[in-house]
Each structure stands twice: as C-alpha cells, then as structure tokens.
Amino acid sequence: MIMKRFASIAFAGMLAAGFLAQADTAAAKEKAIDNYNLYCVQCHGTKGTGRGINAPALSVQPRNHASAKDMESLTDASVAKAIKEGGIAVAKSTQMPPFGGILSEEEIADMVKHLRVMCKCEGKK
After folding, report:
1. How many other CB atoms are there within 10 angstroms of residue 118's CB atom?
2. Distance set, CA 119 to CA 4, 15, 73, 74, 113 (Å)
3. Is 0.85 topped by the overall pTM?
4. pLDDT tens for residues 94-124?
5. Domains plus CATH for the chain?
C-alpha cells in the first residue's frame, strides 16, 4: 500500500515537473520574442527580413533572419557569438552592437532558438 501511494505521488510529481517545464519553455519563447522586438526589429524588421526602420541608414544590410538560405549556413555558436559580442566578433558589421551586457547567456540561447524558428531552419553543425 505504501509503495502504491509512493508511486502515485512520484507520478504526480513527474506530471507537475512536465507542466512546469512546458511553462518554462513557453515563458522563454515569449521572452525571446520580447527581446527580439526590443533589441532587433529596428534593424532586422518585425518579420526578421533585414528591412527594419534603421536598415536604410546602415552601411551593411542586416541579416535576413527569416531566410533559411541565409541562416542555415551559420552555427548556433556563431549566431550566439554575434548576439553576445556584436557583429565585429564574427567578421560582420561593426554597426551591430554587442548584447552580452544586456542579455543573459540563457536569453541569448533562447534568442538563437527564436531565430531558428524564424528561418524555419537548423544551423550548420
């Protein structure tokens, strides 16, 4: 009887943990969208096409995050490095600022996941 009750409690705990993990994932996804809208859309645009309001004034066209062709050649690590250290860290535009002092490592990782959703692609391995 005790073992049966323990098993029920353990199963309930596993279900709760699963629901919490889903809630955490949804919250991380929402936070990545919020961060993209706050820090990226000015140059990359609301749809990630590289045609944000600031794009015409930039000397280098911002990357098209919605393009699988443009994004699938990049590793997740290089995308994270560009976000964290700025464009210059990956031999791209010096006009892309570093966000490592603003976004946490976890937020940067979530942003990379968000960019992969935008391009509907996986990165180069």
Report:
1. 20
2. 48, 32, 11, 12, 10
3. no
4. 999 999 999 999 999 999 999 999 999 999 8
5. 33-119 (1.10.760.10)
